[in-house]
Each structure stands twice: as structure tokens, then as C-alpha cells.
Amino acid sequence: MERYDRAWASVDLDAFLHNLYGIKETLKEGTSVIGVIKADGYGHGALPLAAEMEKLAFVSGYAVATVEEGIALRCAGMKKKILLLGYTFPSAYPQLAQYDLSAAAFTDEMAAEMNRAALLAGKKIGVHIAVDTGMSRIGVRPDEEGAAFVKRLASMPCLRLEGIFTHFARADEADKTRTWEQLRTFRAFVDRLKKDGLSIPLCHCSNSAGILDLPEANLDAVRAGIILYGLWPSDEVDHEKIRLKPVLSLYSRIAFVKELKAGQEISYGGTYRTDRTLRVATVPIGYGDGYPRQLSNRGQVLICGKRARILGRVCMDQFMADVTDIPEAAVGSLVTLIGRDGAEEIAMEELGALSGRFNYELACCLNKRVPRIYLKEGRILSV
Ligand SMILES: *Cc1c(COP(=O)(O)O)cnc(C)c1O
Q1: What is the pLDDT of residues 60-102, one digit of tens each?
Q2: Helix (H/G/I), strand (E/B), else coil: 80
Q3: With respect to CATH, is domain 248-346 assigned 2.40.37.10?
Q4: Which fold has domain 13-229?
Q5: Nearest-CA neighbor of 88 among 118, 119, 65?
Q6: What are the pLDDT digits (tens) for 264-303?
Q7: H or E stretch covering 302
Q8: Residues with a CB atom less than 6 Å from ligand 1
Q9: Which ligand 1 atom sits closest to the C-alpha of 208?
Q10: Domain limits of the chain?
């Protein structure tokens, strides 16, 4: 790892697989997992994760947000189904056909345009009907008109109706009233379609919070996102159901150590002023890497197994930390920004809360400047 002294993230594929198998254990026979790897696998890197899932029969496919994310998976050789979860603009429909990507559909315009693009390409396009049961984001209403739409779509010759899904807005809350309502509404809609002679192969509604707390919502498939990465959808879900292992750790190394006398200001704006002599380390990672500036004067990092607080503002590429009580800290010492060092651990959740973001957002924010190192069975698999 000598080449990655400044800043790097390790992505533990064993932990990823541990989480994935943990999810599988909770599912009933016949429910498959759709691996949600949008936003480059929540910042972890979608391709190496998909490569792991590709071999597993209980993973029925991947879900991403954009056509570019889907194409990247296909071009990397992934053969499983790939579903685009959001609205896909018509300009991308030829690519759906070309790269065999399935898309959410929920308006007649979308269906007609997709059908036309598929006809032109000479290849069917797979669609999943998005049903809005309370998220008010995308989807058809689960009513008379919605059912008529599904029927029209099902009769389009160049579309392959592969699935139907809805998305929970509040499954991560302790109070599941709204989620039960959404599930009931979705099931009633699917039943109604079935009575009308339309059975759709793959019904799915659970996200991570649903998987943990609402086994009844695990239908033909579940869409597992955040828990794949060993992170919790919220504090309110059952943390005992699956033993999750965080997948990503973020590291740097101390670049400089100095002593500051009382009365010295640290970093832009002089927002921290020493009140006694302090030993201060400079850590060469910053918000230019996606490490939140909101952690200025608030965050902590781990150095030699101990917590060191951040002093002053986080800059684009560097920040300062208090190592007064860590005499072993020296230039080159490992700095753990997310992850474990000895008995101490800084979880993505902790930093998410401290920085006023949340764990999902924080993971996505770590950017391209931070190399990802993929570990499997203790060895570096790829970079
Ligand atoms: C992002 C997303 C998911 C995954 O959510 P998690 O909370 O990360 O499990 C599932 N379904 C849809 C439609 C999504 O947009």
C-alpha cells in the first residue's frame, strides 16, 4: 500500500459477501436479491461488487440509477439483469435495447417510446412497472387508471414486462404504519392485476429497512442497498437481525507534526486557538476527497488506536488533528478516518451524524481522488 500513503479507501469484499449472505439467510425460499449498486455502489465501486455478485444464483440482478451506470456494468461483462430504478429519458431508450438494460416505466409516453426504440433496435426492452404507493416520487397510482396503463403496456409487442415494484418512504422508522399501508396498497394492486389475467414475474418492494423489519414485504425479490455495505438504514431498525460488517474504511497518513504554543490559531479563519501547548498533526486529506468540511472542529480520527480531534477548519486537501496525547504519532503514522484501529472505531454513521449528512450521503461523497483498494481473504484483489 506504499503507493497509497496520502488517502485511500479499503473495500473489504469478504465483509460485503458476509452482509450479502446475511441478507439471504433472512429471506424465504424463492426470494432473490437485487443488489442496489447505484452511485457507483454507494461510493464503494460498483464493478468489483457486481463481479462478486455475478457468481451467486440468489442474486437475480442489479439496480442502478442511470443508464450510464447500467452500461458500465454491461461493458464490464455483467450478465445478470440490470434495472434502472428512476425515470429514464427517451434519448437513452436505444441504449436500453442495445445494452439489454431494463427500466422503470410508469407513463404511456414512456411505454410507447420504449416500444418504438425496441422495435427500431430489433430487440425487446425489459420494463418494471413503478407503482407510487406513498413515496410520491415516480410511479403509477395503484388505481383503475394505473391498472389500465399496465394492461396497455403489457400488450406492447416490443416490451417485456419483467416486474412491478414500489418503494417505501418510511420503512426505516420504528412506526411502520405508513409502510404497512404501502405494502397493503401494493399487494392489492398486484392482486387486482392478477385477477385481470396479468401476472407479472417479479414483484418487489423491500429496501434495506424492509428486509430488516418487514419480512412480509419480501416478495419475489428484495432491493438491498445500504445493508450490503454494512451500514444501517437508521437507528430505529432492528440491529440484531443481521450482523453487518462495514465494508469501507478510509485511511490517510500523517504528513507533518509540530508543536504549537498557546495562543496560536489553526487553519482558515483561525476558528481554533490553542489554549496551551499542543502537538498537532497535519493529515493530507480534505473536502476535495469528499471528507466533509462540516467536521471542522467537530470530527475525530484514529491515530495509533486513539481518538484525535480535528482542530480548525477542514481544508480542501488537508486538516489538523490534536496528537498531544498520542506521543507515538509521527510522520507516516496511519490515520483512520472511517473504520477500526485497535479497540476504537469510527463508523460511517457517526461521521454522517456529526457532519449533518447521513451515512448514505457520506459514502457517496468520497470521490475519485480516493483510490479504492479491494481486499479479499486479506489480499489486495484489485485497485
Ligand atoms: C436506493 C433504492 C433502494 C435501496 O435502498 P436502501 O435503503 O439503500 O436499501 C431500493 N429501491 C429503490 C427504488 C431505491 O431508489
Answers
A1: 999 999 999 999 999 999 999 999 999 999 999 999 999 999 9
A2: coil
A3: yes
A4: TIM Barrel (3.20.20)
A5: 65
A6: 999 999 999 999 999 999 999 999 999 999 999 999 999 9
A7: strand 300-303
A8: 36, 38, 85, 167, 207-208, 223-226, 233
A9: 9
A10: 13-229, 248-346
